[in-house]
Amino acid sequence: MNQEDFKVLLRDKGLKVTSQRLLVLQVMAEHPGEHLTTEEIYDMVKQTNPEIGLATIYRTVQVLVDLHLIDKINFDEDVARYELRNQNTKHHHHHAICLGCSKVISFEDDLLENLEAAVDERIGFKVMDHEVKLYGYCSECRKKMEQQ
Amino acid sequence: MNQEDFKVLLRDKGLKVTSQRLLVLQVMAEHPGEHLTTEEIYDMVKQTNPEIGLATIYRTVQVLVDLHLIDKINFDEDVARYELRNQNTKHHHHHAICLGCSKVISFEDDLLENLEAAVDERIGFKVMDHEVKLYGYCSECRKKMEQQ
DNA sequence: AGAATATTGAGAATGAGAATCATGGGTCTG
DNA sequence: CAGACCCATGATTCTCATTCTCAATATTCT
């Protein structure tokens, strides 16, 4: 998603093009694969525009989520995190969360297609998007456990 | 999970058996398949024990989650919800969330086993539990959309 | 350019959940 | 069964993420 496409997208939705919105998207685009909190985005955006307000960050990430440019993810913390969405895939990607070190590993997979087909057939539910979290132990933590 | 087993489980963990803990679990057990907020549990528990405090509900649901008797679920609201865990299965069950009417449909499925095997093989991650949310349209909302 | 209107920034307000602490209730030992 | 020990409870306060409010400003349309 380049800046010009973003401007068109905003205008199509009746939203105004502002320097704040451009800047927040740019910061997100510069950190693909990272799971950023509103506060973290705020700090990074302030390096370019120190005048920006935190409330604007909250409002802007909501706009970007609505436009499907970023995803909101919830990792059982007390803050929400946001991640740039891969525009090539129409789905969220998955997250594996280590119960040992809390590390989050992201991965793509389409093995859910048969699950989605089964749900459609069984209860008539048409899946548009999915969100999968796997809880377990990463290879490093498994090694540590074996050593003990 | 009957009450006697629960008492044994608490004592095994070095936790005390209290009337409040018994009551909260009982209320959860009387509402299988429902996704209750702390406030809703509070209201129901108060009908039997009006003296109980809200803080105790917060503390008790945390205990029940740790004991794997209930699951905490997050539906992109600003409150957490809790659901009785089916003791026959060691995993969370899945949730299909309708984008039209916000209805939540629960279902069991083990089609994730091949996904979990793939993750183990590919990145050495050992899955202990999973949480799946499908976003889409339920059969009723699909009918309404077709009629328009 | 000027009107119309959406957006912003600052600060206050909200609300879920956690922390605090004195009191009360289980549990263990003898 | 008594008394000690200490965890759990209830009431309240506190914290902190997020939302709301509103006047000032920036963007878009004509």
Can you characterise this structure?
2 copies of one chain form a homodimer. Chain A has 148 residues and is α+β, with helices and mostly antiparallel strands. Chain A folds into 2 domains: 3-84, Orthogonal Bundle (Arc Repressor Mutant, subunit A); 94-147, 2-Layer Sandwich (Dna Ligase, domain 1), CATH 3.30.1490. Chain A has 6 helices and 6 strands, in the order H-H-E-H-H-E-E-E-E-H-E-H. The relative contact order of chain A is 0.12. The model of chain A has no long low-confidence stretch (mean pLDDT 94). At the A-B interface, helix 5 and strand 6 of A face helix 5 and strand 6 of B. Strand 6 (126-137) of chain A pairs antiparallel with strand 6 (126-137) of chain B, so a sheet runs across the interface. Chain A binds a DNA duplex (30 and 30 nucleotides) through residues 11, 14-21, 37-39, 51-56, 58-59, 78-80.
